[in-house]
């Protein structure tokens, strides 16, 4: 991994990197060191219009 970049910072993060380093912190309401995952209201979009 390149020094200084957060875990999973590449085009295809692994499932483990997504769960351990990002989603677990999101569920636990912890702060992210980097805002990679954006919150959106899925009910406001049709699937083909998701940002």
UniProtKB/TrEMBL annotation:
Pfam families xref list: NAM
GO biological process, one term: regulation of DNA-templated transcription
SUPFAM superfamilies listed in its UniProt record: NAC domain
GO molecular function: DNA binding
Subcellular location: Nucleus
Gene3D superfamilies: NAC domain
Entry GO terms, CC: nucleus
This protein's record includes keyword RNA-binding: no
Transmembrane segments: none
InterPro entries xrefs: NAC-dom (IPR003441), NAC_dom_sf (IPR036093)
Record's keyword terms, sorted: DNA-binding, Nucleus, Transcription, Transcription regulation
Location of the NAC domain: 5-51
Protein name in UniProt: NAC domain-containing protein
Organism whose genome encodes this protein: Nymphaea colorata (pocket water lily)
